Fold these 3 entries.
Entry 1:
Amino acid sequence: MPTSALHVARTGLEAQDARMRVIANNLANISTAGFKRDRADFATLAYQEQRVAGQQSTNQTAYAIGLNLGTGVQVIGTTRIESQGTLNQTGNALDLALDGDGYFQVELPPGGQIAFTRAGNFTLSPQGNLVTSQGYSVTPPISVPAGSQNVTVAPDGTVSATQPGQAAPVQIGQLQVVSFVNPAGLRSIGDNFLVETAASGVAEPGQAGQQGRGQVRQGMLEGSNVSVVEELVDMIEAQRAYEINSKMVSAVDEMLRNANQTL
């Protein structure tokens, strides 16, 4: 029994350590544009059945309850919380935010893999293409002709610019917003990028503002949806749980020491 209790306490320590790592990552990205906080999810490990409920206790009676001993806890995954972050005004015409669900599409080198992001802090390449801060092209490509003025992005993703010598703006591209059946199934690869998985479903590109997709807000960036207060409360809970499991290890160790001395 004491050895089993040590194992259970160890799984608790490992689980709370993983939870603290998730919380630390959330707090570290509190200023990251478009970041979505993660939550650690837990599940019990397998139970050891000493007696099954309904098992015969005598020839005429059966046990009303069973005797099951748990073997601990494990982290089964991290859930990304997809709630909307605060939209912050920046005044930069190439800063774009999504007001609602969906993602921008970006082409990653090499190979042209498509990634998805909520961070809309875009800029122009030397060739006039709309790119991320890492230089990755937005897809479908948006190219701003040289000398263009007053680049505007409508809520539906229509990109327009005023050409030299012309009074009326001209449409130069159309941003697409991608939706997923299960956005929580997307895999994070760093640099604010997510990639499609079998769990997320196939990317469904479309026009912003249609079929549940968010609208594009020009001159704004979506902030992180991390709440400092909520993360600090979770951190205190994890710390207390870790301390309790540490005390369990100490208590079982003391029990083993007393048993050795007695025997």
Entry 2:
Amino acid sequence: MEKKEIRIDFNKKCGKIKPMHGINGGPRSGGYALPFDFSDEFCEMGVPVVRTVGSAGEYGHNQYINIHAIFPDFDADETLEESYNFLPTDLYLQTIRDTGAEIFYRLGESSEPYSRKLYARSPRDKEKWARIAEHIIMHYNEGWANGFKMGIKYFEIWSAPDSPEGFADDMYEYFELYRITANHLRERFPKIRIGAYGARGFYALNRLDASEEMKSYIPFMQKFFAYVTAEETLAPLDFFTWACYTSNPDEIAIHTQYARNYLDLAGLRRTKSIICEYNTVDRGGTPPALRESLPSELGAALILAQKSSADMMMYSSSDAYSRANALFSMDDHTAAHRYAAFNVMCAYSRLYKLGTQIDTGDDTRKELYSLAATDGNSATLMIVTRKFEGKTELILQVASFDTCLISRIVPGGTRGKGTVYRSKDIAVSSGRVAIPLKPNEIYTVSFFNK
């Protein structure tokens, strides 16, 4: 039987555990009286941030969040309250706030996978569009138009303009829209964080089968960075968002390093790098939630993202009816069905709440990944096995915990629900604990003193 060691060095603190367990879409997909509510699931996962990028839901596509849904008549006076329809978006955002999550607000339009684009294109008056965005922020942060004081920090201008579905016009039309809007919002709201643009990804870096569209994403990004940093077209970029859809967690590490390096090369060293959409690639006819490898893929992705230069990550998505949602779905439209990946998000959340990452050595890529956190009084280690099977000895360095509890997340089961096994108290002998590990499982080891 193969043996490995994981050394948990409490002398080596590695910064804060970052909010990598964010989600695209709230606990209710928007609108009015919806037939499902995942607020309890969001609270249990401790979702730190929700990106409001899509607008699906009981009342159909494009009913909230999108600019045209909130401001339906572009010829109307943008300074008047009656020109806006805030109610569906109000209800949607409030359900997010009620779970304690921070809102990451996308200003723009949803992608349109149709030959004719109705909204996913450049507005005919970019300055007016920027003023409309201003009034939306006024409504949610300053109470304008019977609004709120939500204190939303992050405002993302558009998503996926580098794809034909996301933006129908020339790339420089988007660049100009970003410049005008970002500068207007910076002057009006100096404390918010403004960024872009939900890049579709950097797959051409390492995939030999990258499509021609995939190959266009990186040149788009390079030209965008050159545009917003040029003196004549200068614009603020507090954060840069990009997507990574992959069943190979190590690909996230490759793309994260590339994004950070290119931001730095472009002179954008203070710009945050945010993985705004993450999910696994669809494999044939098997729904992701039912694949036994998916929980370990998600767990490894969370660990690699935390150890990378990325500042935040959001899973895609919370849509109960989406085939890609491997966290939860509906049973007969009345009760929530939680998949094994839901438990993985809960496991990461436990480390996030503890706060400070401590060193566990290098990960064995494609085999074993580990992450530990402490609050000073207790500590938790998260272990993700991919292809490894064998005994692992945990060695606590400079720590005096005498007891631990082990939880094991086993994928599969009925409809992908998975099973969580929890041990009784286990003694920590001379700072060592041995655990037998099996492939595609997730373990959390909580250390404390009785």
Entry 3:
Amino acid sequence: MSKKETAFSEKENMIIGRNPVREALLSGQAIDTVYVSGGGSLHEIRTLAQEKGAVVKTVSDQKLSQMCGDGVHQGVIAFGACAAYVTVEDLMEVSQKKGTAPFIIICDEIEDPHNLGAIIRTAETAGVDGIIIPKRRSAMLTPTVHKTSAGAASWLPVARVSNLAAAIEKLKKAGVWIYGTDMNGSLYTETKFDGAVALVIGSEGFGMSRLIREKCDFLVKLPMLGKITSLNASVAAGIFMYEVVRQRG
């Protein structure tokens, strides 16, 4: 997808102006991110957006004008999500209804929307119960993610949390084992994934954060036999996911 096509698809999901953004928030529409400049009369929108779970970012008027082109933004622009976010508890209910052990993917700061979309696509085909992403420093459920996922983002539930470490602790208390992907881990083929699994996929450039790594029960890795020492995050995620499928099958 070209930059021009990406910009167009994102603009289709853009809500411009104070009243349109306020009404979208009040109606319960899935809002991903709200960009605001200044304060004053925009305080109500800031507060409402935070109450609805949207990410609120402060930017300049110039930035808003660049984002919406000829639109009259009145100091605020919002982007709708391509699907509604759920809670961690909702993800746990998926496996309960299926009668299977939980199988969850945790994306630790995956910022490329194409990578997130590809992970969602593979996860849906692999029978994953859902995906957890953080509110900050992460790609969101944008039209680009939806397109890259080939529509899987409409079927696979995604929970967006403000504290990834706390979400992991919640999974642990529910009996889910946390498997982090790290070059210092054990070979993935020598690791048992036959129980309740939450697989952590680290960011494209830096892998898992230190805090999230410390929260993991196990660390697993892929063999690197060439001169390149890392794989694309979505490719690595796919290999790990289907190892879980293989062992469970």
